[in-house]
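Subject: Phosphonate metabolism protein structure
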Amino acid sequence: MPQHPRYSIYFVPSAQNALYRFGADLLGYDAYSGKPLPFADGIETEIEGWRKLTVDPRKYGFHATLKAPINLRSGKTEDELARAIQEFAHAPRAIPRIVPVVRAIGSFIAVVPRDPCPDLQQLAAECVTAFDDFRAPLTPEDRERRNISALTDGQVMHLDRWGYPYVFEDFRFHMTLTGSLPAEQRTVVLNILQKRFASLNLQSVSIDRLALLRQSDATSNFTILSDWPLVAA
């Protein structure tokens, strides 16, 4: 079992943002307040077993991973990590902008960019490297929990060097809406979520902020400690 507390650096839209409300209401959890939310109106009627289908993503809140969950390295503190993120956010850079769509990724469903976005790939890569000094080394137990046989050689190298396999060329921006779905249910759920998402009429989304989240123990959800807007170049 992972050690705690754990910290992560995510893109989370602002609390009143339409995209955030969409995702948080579907998951039934608000990472800003750390409190449960009523599920989106009618979703439990439309999709049987919706609460169970969202157990896994609910623990993390509606987000996109930029630096996967870590334990702090010995000698590093939460305040130091927060200051480092603030300094990073204040450095002028190109602000990634995507056209969001809802698609299936493997066995789950997520909000993803419609098109490749080099600025987003660059931001994600910088987050991996900029904060790695705060990451405690991967333990043999942590490594064992990964299904190494399912990873490519490059992903195994990333896991051993950066503590997470899906970075750099293997990074795929996604904001998860469901857990793993059986194949016979996936198309039905995807169609329902795509229809709901279309009603938002979101033409684009700026990936314009970073949030620091903490999971205090194995039974708790990740909650937002603070967030910072990125400064445009």
